[in-house]
Amino acid sequence: MKILNLYAGIGGNRKLWGDEHEITAIEFKPEIAKIYQDFFPKDKVIVADAHKYLLEHFSEFDFIWTSPPCQSYSKVRFVATYREGKIHQKPIYPDMKLWQEIIFLQNYFKGMFVVENVIGYYKPLIPPQELEKHYYWANFYIPPTNRQGFRGHDSSIEDLEKIKGFKLPKDTINKRLLLRNCVEPEIGKYILDRIEIKKGKVIEKIVQTNLFQI
Length: 214
Known about the structure:
The protein is an alpha/beta fold.
């Protein structure tokens, strides 16, 4: 299966996918892309704008995972910006790339896709599936898990490395941020496992527009 992994970071969602798939990872920052490449030497890693790359190359893949930046959408940032009736940091516009990619994939992409993001501070413009305190937009059903999901964002860097399964180079900048932004490997594998492949063709495909009628 040809997989496109957008906004790849250090590869949390990809960590347990194995090497049987042909994976292309897109990461904007060269220093982070290098870390990803060191962890996953068999993947094709491209330093590029993931939003633009999706538009130009989406038809080349069977499965697309995209995790657009969440800062402008995040409930945490909103609370930190506006609390107790006062502005504590400069407000920012919500980044509409998240919604652009969901709408684009729903209408143009013929394969399977997942768009992952945090639970935001405003009502989602497009209804998501919710899994372990995160939102997922997909064109197939993702059943709930029995896990509680990760809650240790304030853990030490050493503990975060153990939890996420990554040992970052000593000179890595913003280790905590990289690890906190890293999708849990177990959930990445769980979602990929929901896609059943037989003779190279997807045999389960539930379009999200029908999802909430089931």
